[in-house]
Amino acid sequence: MQIPEAPEEASKFARVRDGFQRLWTPHRMAYIRGEGKPTARPSRGRNDIPTCPFCSAPGGSDAEGLIVHRGETCYVVLNLFPYNPGHLLICPYRHVPRYLDLTDEETLEFTALTKDAIRALEAASNPMGFNLGMNQGAVAGAGVEAHLHQHVVPRWGGDMNFLPIIGQTKALPVLLEDTRTELREAWPR
After folding, report:
1. Which domains does the chain carry?
2. What is the pLDDT of residues 167-181, one digit of tens each?
3. Could you say which DSSP state residue 83 is in?
4. Residues with Cβ < 8 Å from 78, sequence gap 6 or more?
């Protein structure tokens, strides 16, 4: 394996050949730095408050917002930074931070859409299991803590290897647009 030389402006340490290949994912830096994460309230057009991605996604086309299904009070969207292909998020349209903030009507649809997401993923990609969960608050791991959302992550045997654990990188074999199309076609009617 031939490892390319580091650019001239790189430090002398960058030139050390360690035998590793690198899969660069610089697009994730926006997520890691927290760019565009909303505050406790959605933006009302002010430039100093980030717009909530879960409030803005339903405002455009389904394809543009990566929306798989729209309900009355909640919708289903592909995660822009997925753990696995088909990683879905169930979101209420209302900007609320906690599960306890949902109305009874929202809670019923939130749960029903979670079940439909599992059915669609089973039909589209036959996963062997699922991770389901909500992270409420930054200390609980919420990436966007201001707008409630539930993760539905399909899992397969062997889908985790050394790459995410050691390299903090996830290789995804399917484009988001292709995954969205497959899931919309498999969505329960």
Report:
1. 34-186 (3.30.428.10)
2. 666 667 778 888 899
3. S
4. 66, 68, 86, 87, 88, 89, 176, 179, 180, 183
Backbone torsions φ then ψ of 146, nearest 5 degrees? -80, -20
Contact (CB, 8 A) for 31 and 41? no
Nearest CA to 170 out of 77, 79, 53, 62 is that of 79
Q: Can you name the residues that pair with 70 across neighbouring β-strands?
A: 75
d(CA 78, CA 35): 19
* Contact by Cβ (8 Å): 170, 162: no
**Cross-strand pairs, 76:** 69, 90
* 101 alpha carbon, distance to own chain's centre: 22
State which H helix or E strand residue 65 sits in. helix 62-65
For 47, counting Cβ atoms within 10 Å of its Cβ (0-12 exposed, 13-18 middle, 19+ buried), the class is exposed
Catalytic residues: 149
Phi, psi values for residue 117, rounded to 5°: -60, -40
Q: What's the Cα-to-Cα distance from 172 to each of 46, 63, 80, 88, rounded to whole Å? A: 35, 19, 12, 14
Question: For residues 66 and 50, what is the distance between their CA atoms, to the nearest angstrom?
Answer: 19
Amino acid at 85: P
Segment 11-61, tens digit of pLDDT: 554 555 655 555 566 666 666 666 655 554 554 555 555 578 899 999 999
Q: How far is CA 17 from CA 6, 9, 165, 167, in A?
A: 10, 17, 22, 17
The pTM for the full model equals 0.71
